[in-house]
Amino acid sequence: MVRGNQTTTVTEFLFSGFPQFEDGSLLFFFPLFIIYIFIVIGNLTVFFAVRMDSRLHNPMYNFISIFSFLEIWYTTATIPKMLSNLVSKQRTISMIGCLLQMYFFHSLGNSEGILLTTMAIDRYVAICNPLRYPTIMTPRLCAQLSAGSCVFGFLVLLPEIAWISTLPFCGPNQIHQIFCDFGPVLHLACTDTSVILIEDVIHAVTIITTFLIIALSYVRIVIVILRIPSAEGRRKAFSTCAGHLMVFLLFFGSVCLMYLRFNITYPPVLDTAIALMFTVFAPFFNPIIYSLRNKDMKNAIKKLLCPQKSLNTSAG
Hints:
Helix content is 73%, strand content 5%. The protein has helices spanning 25-52, 59-76, 79-87, 95-128, 133-136, 139-155, 158-165, 182-186, 193-226, 231-259, 268-292, 295-305, 307-315, and strands at residues 2-4, 7-9, 12-15, 92-94, 174-175. Strand 1 and strand 2 (7-9) form a beta hairpin. Helix 1 packs parallel to helix 11 (268-292).
């Protein structure tokens, strides 16, 4: 901070969301580091398994591979800085660094939310209109939806980040969180608090709208599946949606806990736990869900990791 004429201009922020880790930072550093490495390797494995197995070159698996790729960068936007803070005494971040972290973290999160919506619609068309599915979900449309999810996710946040960068920060610089987020940062700005409420409402409406679109799609899917006469047909239909549904519940469950709180204040330990669930544990379970619950994905991963063994098995 720079002082002069009895005013203070904040040039960096101090993370104060780690007080419960003070006495055992290294004990938390190594598990978090291992989880981060697993997230990167796990999602890279899913991404390359889909890309290198021609049997998985269809819209559903294409969306899964894009989602896995986004997850790598989504966690990279926050976890490396968390790891640095766990072993550093300063635990600071510059103003520009904080804005960039917020931008990339939430842009990637927005892209994932849009992509999950696209995946839900894809499963809706596949199960509710199977005869029209090949003509509706063409490779061209699939590519456009994937690219559109990413482009829109990054563009929609630019005005908000640009606006935050113009706000005056002239008081305390302690962010009561383990990463830069809208709420904790906006509460440090020397501006009208009603603006913060408006931001909360906009975020809430966006989250609820996206959640309802996906939820209604899956409700319709379940109704159609239950009408399938054969038990084998129902089982197969459910298996294609189970992974998507679990990832959707995990992703939006943590999002709702994190952002649909309005004026509710959580205890520091619970606040940190929710933040870790949102930024770390949800991405940790995604590659596990997609690889363990899908036979085709298992075979593709085995083929990627053990190509010679897979070749011998096929020959046999």
